[in-house]
Amino acid sequence: MKLTKELGISLGFLAGTTFGSGIAFLFRLQSVEVIASVSLFGIAGAITGVIMAVILRQRQH
């Protein structure tokens, strides 16, 4: 399985939203704050996933 940008975005978004949901649960945030937390960490995870996919692809060449 090749690590492409699409896969990096998908895995990063999944990891980010899971992390954001866990943080919201631990801090017992209200609904609006949960949505903000999950969204923020999801976007950060997707960006990180793309960056990692690009870095790993450059190392392969």
Structural write-up:
This protein is mostly helical. 85% of the residues lie in helices and 0% in strands. The protein contains 2 helices and no strands. The longest helix has 30 residues, at 31-60. The protein is rod-shaped, with a radius of gyration of 14 Å.
Key phrases:
61 residues; mainly alpha; 2 helices; 85% helix; 0% strand
Let me know the largest β-sheet: none
SSE arrangement, N to C: HH
Mean pLDDT: 94
Instruction: Work out the oligomeric state of the chains in this entry.
Output: single chain
C-alpha termini separation: 16 Å
From the spread of the alpha carbons, the general shape counts as rod-shaped
What is Rg? 14 Å
**Residues in helix, %:** over 70%
Low-confidence stretches: none
Number of strands: 0
Topology diagram in text:
Layout: H1 5-26, H2 31-60
The gist of it:
The protein is mostly helical.
